[in-house]
Amino acid sequence: APSPNQVLAGVYPISQLQEPYSAVGYLASRLPLPTLLQLPSATSAWTAWDICEAWAEKRGYKTARTARNDVYRAANSILRLAAEGKLPLCHRPPGYSQNKGETPPQNLQ
């Protein structure tokens, strides 16, 4: 399975990720993260970095030395929200859309 799926499924530890932005991007492609996290509206399309930066600003995550927004910590925070089930992420089984119109098999006695 791809790395973002492993992280969101809880198979791969979030703390071990060196680059969490691709997993946040994967999550953002399937959920309306700016709306769910109540981020201020942007003038252009959201990227994973923009979402992490806005979340860091909202939560007050700052780096120690330069007091910039800590986007790495924000990305980890967003992924933890998804892993804990606080962000509603679900995947449909393979072939769901093809089998959606079929009737389920009847119990045979």
Automatic annotation (TrEMBL):
UniProt source species: Ramphastos sulfuratus
Ranges annotated as biased composition (Polar residues): 96-109
Entry protein name: GNL1 protein
Signal sequence bounds: none
Gene for this chain: Gnl1
Region Disordered, annotated ranges: 90-109
UniProt keyword annotations, A-Z: GTP-binding, Nucleotide-binding
Gene Ontology MF term list: GTP binding; GTPase activity
